[in-house]
Each structure stands twice: as structure tokens, then as C-alpha cells.
Write a structure and sequence with these properties.
mainly beta; Neuraminidase; 2 domains; five-stranded antiparallel β-sheet; transmembrane helix; AT5G49610-like_b-prop; transmembrane; F-box_dom
């Protein structure tokens, strides 16, 4: 009898038999999605949704390694562009001035307490620390014990000491990507690239500046300028605006401009509202230089610098004024601006009720700190929490 196709009933004299094809493919391994499609799906997860990124990393090692790859992290940052305020470092009074990382999101560094170190600056995912002497230790000079720390990877790079004939009486410094100021990096993925540390100090003879390069692991030859009639305010963070760093002097009437391209230092006037008040430099949305301060009426005032075609300061104008009394709790009297995270538009304000952040974009006010501190250093960076999960599996 002619054989019928599978699945048809045989009507012959023999007993009826049924045959079913393997239509469901139960013995086949389902095809995997290409990495490109998985990436497109994962790119849609917002950067502040760390919980979902972590769940994705735990699905399988393939996905974890995909999220941890530098190529994906680069595309992820290009898609979302804006980094996050992951926290800040506080040089706390109850620790003797040692730095502690205070998180504002889910990220936690491996070693949040930086014993024996004071945080001095943070930029482009790196933190500048300097070693401070314990009680009874011989003071070696803080400028001779600088390190750069990556809180996300916990890597750190000690810097060699500066070689100076004269003792340094007053100094400040900034850490930044090695290409900052020359426009060749968008700072979305400059880690773990090279970095620079710009050190500005005052000794008995002059004000000088020297730049450390991680590429050569050496300090540059110092450039100098005339001694100012003031001291650098090491408690106020410098600002990177355009191709220059800006440092404030203690009296609050002038600031120092350090041109990253020419290595030239110059002194600029700033608007004077009252003597010895605290002003904090910041980069504005247009890339220009601005200042933030709190006046006697608890108004947060943002100043913007207008420059001529030759680059000279023409004027300072108030670009924005916010009455903090309408935003802060009634018992929180605003005293001053302590720090600015200009990359994300967040200003730290010190009050008699602790430290609050004010988001310039959303208007949101959040209490973030209530302990005694000497300095606050915001830490802004992209963070992919699955990096460790991918490496540890």
C-alpha cells in the first residue's frame, strides 16, 4: 500500500496508525538574539535605573559582559549624555578632616572612608586627594602627598612630590581629563584615560603653577606670576569653563584664571556685593563662566560673565535669582553656597539645618547632609553597576 504523508490515517486492513511531525521543535535550541539587538534594548534603560541594570547583569554572563564592555558603555553614555550626581565627598569634622563618600544614589565605593586623606577636587570621574598628618606626625607638606582616586573602580594613582626650593604657604589644585581645554574629548568615556592635575601655589617669592601629566608621570616646569595681595581660597572648588580653570581668592573680590592652552595666569575682578563673602565659580550652560552665591536675604544669585571679543571681562550680570526661603523648610536659613556640580546643574547650599541641594533644572530641593564638615566635593560620573558583577562571575 502506498505510504501516506505523516499525520494521515491509514485506511488499510492493518490497524490505523497516526504520525505527528515535530512541529514545535521541542528538541531544538531556540536561536539567540544578536548582541546588536540586545544592546538596542538595553540602551533604553535610563542611567538612574541602577536596579534594572543590575537585574539584566544577573540574567547570564553574556549579558553581564555585554553591559561591562567599553563599547556598550560608550554607546550608553552617548545615548543619555548627562552623567549623574552619584554623591559627594565630605571632609568631616568628626573624622579630623578625613574624607568620606556620602552617596546620593545607589552607588557605593568599595572604600567610602578615605582615612588620612582629604578630598580636594573632583572632575571627569576622578577625585583629587591629599594626605593629611595624623596628630603627632611630622608635617610633610600636603602638596607632597597627592593622589588621584577613581571611586568606581577603586584605582588610585600617587603623584610624585613637587620639587620646590621655597616652602609653599598656600595652594590649591584641580584634577581633569588630559584633553580638557583643547576640545578633543566629550568626557563621556575618558576613563581610564590620561589625566592632568593643575597645582597652583604661593611661596615667599611668587605665585606659580605646575601641571602633572599621568602620561609622562612628571610635573611640568612651573610658570609664575606676580604675588597677589591675597591668598587662594582652598575651600572653594575651582571651575572649568572653556579652556581655563578659575580659582577664587579668599577676600572674594578677585579670581585667578589659568589658561590650559597657554599656561598663563591672570587675575580677574568679580562682582562685589559685600566684603569677604563666599562666591563659587561654575560653568554656565553656554560654556561661559559664572558665579553662585547666597545674599543676605537668602537669595541664590547666579552671575554670568560677559567678555569682549579680545576675551577681556566687560561686565557681570545676574542671570538668575532664586528666593530660597520659598523652597527650604522654614527653620532652614540659607547661609552660603558650598559647592556646585555644574555638569548636572546642582548647587549645594549650607543652612543652619544642614546641607541642601538645589537642582537648577527641576527646582527640586533635597536635604543631603546634616553633619559638621569642612568641605563638600560633588562627585559626578556615569556608573554602570554591573561592572563588578561581570568581572566577578
Amino acid at each position: 500500500m502506498e505510504k501516506l504523508p505523516p499525520g494521515f490515517l491509514s485506511l488499510g486492513s492493518e490497524s490505523a496508525e497516526f504520525s505527528f511531525p515535530d512541529l514545535l521543535g521541542t528538541h531544538r535550541t531556540p536561536p539567540q538574539l544578536p548582541d546588536e539587538i540586545i544592546e538596542e534594548i538595553l540602551l533604553c534603560i535610563p542611567p538612574d535605573d541602577h536596579e534594572h541594570l543590575l537585574y539584566v547583569a544577573l540574567v547570564c554572563k553574556r549579558w553581564a559582559c555585554l553591559l561591562a564592555s567599553r563599547g556598550f558603555r560608550r554607546r550608553y553614555r552617548e545615548r543619555h549624555r548627562t552623567p549623574l550626581l552619584l554623591g559627594f565627598l565630605g571632609n568631616l569634622i568628626d573624622t579630623g578632616g578625613y574624607a568620606r563618600f556620602i552617596p546620593t544614589r545607589a552607588f557605593r565605593p568599595v572604600h567610602p572612608d578615605r582615612h588620612d586623606y582629604r578630598a580636594h577636587d573632583a572632575r571627569h570621574g576622578r577625585v583629587l586627594l591629599n594626605r593629611i598628618a595624623r596628630c603627632g606626625d611630622v608635617f610633610q607638606g600636603v602638596e607632597a602627598a597627592l593622589i588621584v582616586w577613581d571611586p568606581i573602580t577603586d584605582d588610585q594613582w600617587p603623584l610624585p612630590p613637587l620639587q620646590r626650593d621655597q616652602p609653599v604657604h598656600n595652594w590649591t589644585a584641580a584634577v581633569l581629563c588630559a584633553t580638557a581645554g583643547v576640545g578633543t574629548c566629550d568626557h563621556l568615556d575618558c576613563l581610564p584615560g590620561d589625566f592632568h592635575v593643575v597645582f597652583v601655589g604661593i611661596d615667599d617669592k611668587e605665585m606659580f603653577a605646575s601641571v602633572y601629566s599621568s602620561d609622562s608621570a612628571t610635573w611640568s616646569e612651573a610658570t609664575s606670576a606676580n604675588l597677589p595681595h591675597d591668598h587662594l581660597n582652598e575651600a572653594v572648588l575651582p571651575a572649568l569653563a572653556g579652556n581655563a580653570l578659575y580659582f577664587v581668592f579668599r577676600m572674594g573680590m578677585t579670581m585667578l584664571k589659568y589658561d590650559l592652552a597657554t599656561k598663563v595666569m591672570s587675575v580677574l575682578p568679580i562682582p562685589i556685593s559685600w566684603y569677604l563673602r563666599r562666591v563659587v565659580p561654575m560653568a554656565m550652560d553656554d560654556g561661559g563662566l559664572g558665579l553662585a552665591e547666597v545674599d543676605m536675604q537668602s537669595n541664590l544669585i547666579l552671575w554670568s560673565m560677559e567678555v569682549s571679543a579680545d576675551g577681556d571681562v566687560e561686565n557681570w550680570v545676574v542671570s538668575r535669582q532664586i528666593d530660597l526661603r520659598t523652597l527650604l523648610p522654614a527653620h532652614a536659613l540659607a547661609f552660603c553656597v558650598v559647592a556646585v556640580a555644574d555638569a548636572v546643574g546642582v548647587i549645594f547650599v549650607y543652612t543652619d539645618d544642614g546641607v541642601y541641594t538645589f537642582n537648577l533644572n527641576s527646582g527640586q530641593v533635597t536635604k543631603v547632609f546634616s553633619y559638621g564638615f569642612y568641605d563638600v566635593i560633588p562627585f559626578v560620573s556615569f556608573y554602570t553597576p554591573v561592572l563588578r558583577a561581570a568581572l566577578d562571575r
